[in-house]
## 1
Amino acid sequence: MRINVEYSTQHWIFPIITIGVLVILGVLLIALEGRARVKAGGSFFAKPGRFFAENYDKFKFWGCIVLMIVYFFFLDKLGFTFWSMICLYLFNTLFANKAQLKSAKYHVISVIISVVACLLISIVFGTLFAITLPSGLFTIEIPSLGFILY
Amino acid sequence: MPFAFGPEYLAVALFGVVIGIIFGAIPGMTATMAVAVFLPLTYAYSMEMALYLLLGLYVGGISGGLVPAILINIPGTPSSVCTTFDGHPMALKGQGERALKIGITSSFIGGMISLVVLALFTPVLAAWAIKFSAVEKFLIILFALTVIAALSRGQMLRGIWIGMLGVLIAMMNQFSVNNMYRMVPKFLESQMQSGFQLFPVLIGLFAVSEMLEQCETGMHASYSKDDTLEIKNDVKFNFFRDFKGQVINVIRSALLGTFMGILPGVGGSAASLIAYSQAKSWSKHPELLGTGVPEGLIASETSNNGLTGGALVPLLSLGIPGDSTTAVLIGAFMLQGIQVGPLFITNNPEIWNTVLVALLCCNILMYLVMFFPVKLLAKIILIPQERLYPVVLMMCTVGAYATLNGRMFDVWCLLVFGIVGLLIKKFHFPVSCFLIGFILGGDLEDYFIQVLTTYNGYLTGLFVRPMAWVIWALIILSVVYAVLDNRKAKRQAAEEAAAKK
């Protein structure tokens, strides 16, 4: 068996083979699992089961996804340190249970963790190790000292 | 025999071991996550220093899982599932400290035996693999993919399918030979020249998806003092009494763990399950296993730490990761511009020696850090997840952003692959197969195109070399094994279902 290797189209050779294998295996998977269900006395196609766990925490799950989107969206607009401090506090609040939400101590600790963790990450990674972090409106740069707080 | 060693290296290794133990001891957090989260810290390190840190995280992460397994009957990492079977009953009997010390000592011995295998086996395998042409390299990756499937018990087809999907996703980039894009939307072409980067994909699959899963269940997995057993010491740990008659169990379990580590894509959970079932089969009193006897605990913990050295063998000799954590280590080597594979030891003797010394130091440090302050270990479980996950997310974001020197695209990939990881788990596909497919996909294609070019497009090129025949035989063997084992697993599941009715 020969495959024609042409310069202009060779970038599709392996993806096409892989897609072919995926289709064949997919059909085989459906057929074999369907046959096993029929043998067990059920129907060929499985009834769609519950996607999320029963009584899943909608607020925390969707809240986490939305907060991540908002966090990532403004990260390179506002700067890493300032924006991460706010979002870290929001994540701590989002993940808290009802009793923790009412506790002032919980919120004070959340603020301390947010400020300390973000400053630490920013200084260790950004300043000490000179790793590029997202910069934005609130990035503080002192060129004469070679200091950047992203 | 040059290698990197000194107080600064030991300090970094100690930091890695302690953080790794904390990650391992908190249910829901894994060694893979620990290594991935701290990978960006190595951007500023030399390769040698990075190895001390990452291997410390790896050894600590795998070992830490025994703490909650024994004290709250919840494995901290998947690899300590079997530790719960005998470890927790021992803690219930007031032998918590003894169980922890047996587990820690077993982990240390397992790590040491796997280190010996790593030192002896890797150069041999690399020397063999150095003679490989593109044909053998292509086939060995194909073999790795079939082995993954063979060991996805009861999920063979699902394992192969999701692995192939990983291969396909790895090809969403600009093809290096003719600079043409494939499967990339026009508006993303400037971002996806080299495709999706390993780090955001990996951290998304393992850390973000885990965080989303925890959110789904309400982030309730934090534990209070009431949940953990007090570490009692009614029966004291005595090495000679507790390990008496266990020499064969220790060696068998460590070698099984190491061997399972060498096979690509096999996690510690499979290693400890197999070692535990073997310990039960060979035991003089199999009925006692599961009731709180050291034998089962030793088998589980020796094997899962045996995995650490084993998983490094294919990584360093063939460039194929043995498990998801060593897949992250590939990222560390890539960052330093070092190619892992058959030429790794020849081209980087100092780094190879450092791997061995670092692994030795990390195992010793793990033992010292866990064995003596054993009562402090219970406190790690009390660290609340709702405090830890947000910080982990920040660190992941830093790592993803810095992957290609500052791109928001890689940060968005975190979220995308977090959701992809969640979907893969929800539809009951093994995530590790997807990851291994993704990592090996690029090389698989490169070698295939090289074979076609060398043999004028004829696929018969895949059969002309004698070494290729050996690998073909291994591929066929693993597929046959997979089919038979898959049937057996399904028959067992059907019998269990019938028995329940």
## 2
Amino acid sequence: MTVLQVPATAQRATLIGRPFFWIIALVIAVFAAAPTIGNDVELRESLLLAAVYITLASNLNIMLGYCGYINFGSIVFFGLGGYITVYLLNTRGWPLGGALLAAGFAVSALALLFGLGILRLRGAFFALSTIGINEAVQAFAENFEPWGGSAGIYLSTELFQPLGGPARALWIIYYLLVGVMGLSLYLSYAIKNSKFGLGLLAIGQNEDAAGVLGVPTPFYKAIAYSISAFLPAIAGGLYFFKSAFIQPSDAFDLTLSTEAIVIVMLGGQGSIAGPALGAYLYEELRGWLLTSETFANFQLVVAGTLLLAIVLFTPGGLMGWLYGRWPRLRKVLE
Amino acid sequence: MFGVFASIVDGILVGAVYGLAAMGITLIWGVMDVVNLTHGTLIVAGMFALYILTSALGVPIYLTLLPIFVGGFLLGLALYWIAVHRMVGRPPLMSLLSTFSVNLVLIGIGTAVWGTRLFNVAVTLPGVSVERYTFPGTHILAAVLTAAIAGALYLFLYSTRLGKAIRAVANNREAAELVGIPTTRVLSLAFGLGCALACVSGMLIGTMFPFTLLSGDTYQLKSFVVTALGGLGNPTGALLGGISLGLIEGLETPFMPVSWTLVIEFAIFVAVLIAFPSGIFRRRRS
Amino acid sequence: MTALLVVENLTKRFGGLLAVDKLSFDIETHEILGLIGPNGAGKSTVFNLVNGVFAADEGRVVFDGHDVTGMPPYRIAHLGLARTHQIVQPLTAMTVLENCTVGACFGRENLSISRAREAAREAAELVDLADRLSVTAAQLTIAGKKRLELARALSARPTLLLLDEVLAGLNPTEVEHMIGVMRRIRERGVTILIIEHLMQAIMSLSDRIVVLNSGRKLAEGKPAEVANNPAVVEAYLGDPALAAELHGH
């Protein structure tokens, strides 16, 4: 049985008053400060990847951990956000902020539209539809000339000038990504402690019973799906802007969304700290694997074995195990 | 004009094999409410076994059917005990994740050891020529064998004790247990059977088309589309659904570039499920 | 008194089976209406039709003046209808308080979380679950889960409560307790439609009884009238023990 971390009962403190609010703030501060002090570019790059994973996992958690719906194709938000951002920057000359926001809203709107359709499907059918959406969008990108077709789009380095040149731009992009990561964590936090979140959690426990209790299930699910698209889209925009290059096979690579699923389950689905912890652990594991000769090709094998072990033995993931061992932690972590 | 008609007929032949693959999914799902996400990989395993047995061991092509069936069954039993047994009765999310994770492992190992190159099993079989179109012998034989296997499956489910036990467990697991049916054993056998069907359909597809170790996703998708069309837990529906899909593909190929086929099939999948949540060919259960 | 619930010619087929056949009855505000009938008579199906889980093939359901035929369950819940299930449906990983808070949040009054928690506590107290608010639903006994099911439905402060065999599987002491709870609920002004197999209980609780057999209304009236109705006795003759119970032996 999964261990679900739901709002602690006798809460008198507001969201800001609780310890976890400040723990999130601390994490953001550490991410921002650590590479800055000492101008450590290598650390920045590795933390940037971690921030991307945490963003994807936290937002995925809204569907997977709260509602109990597996989104195999969540990468589509990231990739499509990347494409829209890069296209607006490169071809239309938009400023970075505008392009990112436009990407975020456009992808959320599309997610709402598609979500209303595919969220009527239960379990496996929904999960498979999300792959289908990813495939469909990838096929579109490969055939859409203004987006460079299967060759993709190369960004000119001129685009970094408004940000003060390439070196400085990379730092700005990093801070923005840390901001997106922070917003993702706060978003999970706010949702989980809201009435909307309570409804989502009820859907995840027993969707039919939730409906009978008055939870407007079709709308809540669609809204959750749409919200879970917004920040990953912006993250995608930042990521591919930084790479100065985007192509369909990278932007819509299912490996990343698969890893996000493993991360959420590893950390503890339904919790807020879980995806963050899981992302950190997974990135460490992955980094170690890539340096080891024998395991370099076995990335997905390891991910699969890990996921299987979690599902079979500790469905509550790391947070579930921690809460089991030290129940007092519930007062501090969420 | 005849070209389109021929394409449709050919599509139906191939579609029957898709129906066979779908029977694997629908059997498992109908009996234990588990969606087997290793299905695509099992199809590829069947294809790959065909390749190894024929090229490395020189086994005559169609004689590989029986060993692949048995092998698939045994593999299915192993998969059941590893990933599925503890998930029966738990929320469907769990069995999705467990079969998904096993699938990752299998594909990861497979591609690491054998790579992602194209494999092709050359089958020389006389075709049937009508006007300017030749219906490949492999397609015809595959459809015939599919019909035979489907018939055997039907006989098994409706005339043998074990088959009836499987249907009883599918209908009402608790009641079946109360009547003394060893449900766990039945579930594992049903799962093994579903996997065997997947492997055999892979073998038949392997006689018709080239493949890579990553082809599983495509055929898994087709199996799910067939299930959507044919309804769950319904072998006849699976066959009819497969033929329908084959028909649709036959209509597509003369007119559409291949890269859009998958997208169209997904669109059909979603559209059908939204309009007919229980499948178009679902037999009404009272 | 105006009828809180009006069921008119309600019909439902499942394939070839006619589960509910042109059923009509009313429930007046503040009354307790008992729904009885042999197994398979269609009682739970009626519940599912009233609260929107099944779509009726024919007929209407009018609740509190609104035509709710064909509405999804959550909209009917917002109008003030709550139900319990024969096979309990707890939100297993959530605590008793959280389960009830869900009920209170999404029920008739559309409360905020903090207000909902208060309503949840009140409901839990009414069924004597106040001492187990932080227990996870999964850890409750079957009796506890049944109380939770009831408390959760009450948390929504419904005007009409559908109770589906709340007493099944309980021992005599627990049954006594639940009957007391149901009387307290009625005192608070909630109208109740109850399905029950425990004859004595339902006969003593209900103001009126509707008897269902094979999906059709067999009889309707005060408990004593219904118990002496020859057609009703005959329907139960298949189960002599039950027929005897009808007559209070």
